[in-house]
Amino acid sequence: MDHRKIRRELMQRIDKKSAVEKEKVDRYISLLDVFYQLDESIQKHGVMLKIQNGSQTYWKPNPGIAEKNRINSALITLEKDFKMPKIAQKVVKTPPSQYDSSDLV
After folding, report:
1. Mean pLDDT by 10 residues, the chain (105 residues)
2. Measured distance between the N- and C-terminal CA atoms of the chain, rounded to whole angstroms
3. Which residue of 66, 68, 70, 100 has the fewest CB atoms within a 10 Å radius of its CB?
4. Contact 14, 25 (CB under 8 A)
5. Distance CA 100, CA 102 (A)
6. Is 60 left (phi over 0), alpha (psi -120 to 50) or beta?
7. Distance between CA atoms of 68 and 36, rounded to whole angstroms?
8. Rounded to an integer, what distance in angstroms lies between the CA atom of residue 62 and that of residue 47?
């Protein structure tokens, strides 16, 4: 993933004079880096981890998955601050009725 393109796009959406807005872009890119590092770690170690504790052996989910979900939520929250365009919903207007309530039996 090319973070430079993402940074450029985000910088176009903010007030470049605002230090707070610039920091949010930096934070977003930093979280994005961690998100993809977690991806690599999960692929390397697997979704489930084998844990050996003395004579006990058990499997547990890779904690990276929960962290990835938490970071994803933080990214989505920051995206809202960048005023990301929302998908326009098409409003379907129904034509006016040719009948009125007196037509009902």
Report:
1. 88 90 94 96 95 93 96 93 58 60 63
2. 65
3. 100
4. yes
5. 5
6. beta
7. 9
8. 5
